[in-house]
Amino acid sequence: MPKKNNSKRPQASSSKPSVPARLVQVISSDGITLNADVRALILSSTLATTIKELGYDKEDCVDMKPLPVNNVIGFTLKLVIEWCDKHKEDDPAIAQAEKDKKNIFIPSWDKHFLSMLPMSHLFDLITAAYHLDITGLINYGCKTVANSAKGKSTEEMRELFGIPEPWEQPSTSTATWDD
């Protein structure tokens, strides 16, 4: 049996796991480490600026230290990465044009992805997109929330958004009157 030639394989560093040149590790606020394609991460203006300031670019991120992503828990960060990975090849000019439009069209993949999330996770995802400055995700997420509220009664909206009735809300007063 002939021997395989492995001489072209990159050597892994003994101090940390090997990550391909376009993969970057990100660490969520709750300490979860995830790998993400740098081309996906740069959809976040916040992360794109950080990567650039560290002296890296979308073609070469070898030996980049893990990027902390504050204010975003691991579960939500995984959703953000999934969305960004799907859109990493999109034309940035389209995202800017969508930002300026009054009527936003949500593509079918995004509609399915966002509609599968419970409302609380969707709110977390929109908040993360806001912190990370991901325009397309903010627009599609907010449009999804708006569409879900269309035509609903007050009661239906309270249920949808988890808002208690005014008389069910706990009192903020803790003072008592004793005679």
UniProtKB/TrEMBL annotation:
Residues 24-88 form the SKP1 component POZ domain. One of its GO terms (biological process) is protein ubiquitination. InterPro entries: SKP1, SKP1-like, SKP1-like_dim_sf, SKP1/BTB/POZ_sf, Skp1_comp_dimer, Skp1_comp_POZ. The keyword Nucleus does not apply. Gene3D superfamilies: Potassium Channel Kv1.1, Chain A. Keywords: Ubl conjugation pathway. Pathway: Protein modification; protein ubiquitination. SMART domains: Skp1. Pfam families: Skp1, Skp1_POZ. Residues 136-165 form the SKP1 component dimerisation domain. Probable essential component of SCF (SKP1-CUL1-F-box protein) E3 ubiquitin-protein ligase complexes, which mediate the ubiquitination and subsequent proteasomal degradation of target proteins. Regulates cell proliferation during embryonic and larval development. Belongs to the SKP1 family. This is Skp1-related protein. It comes from Caenorhabditis tropicalis.
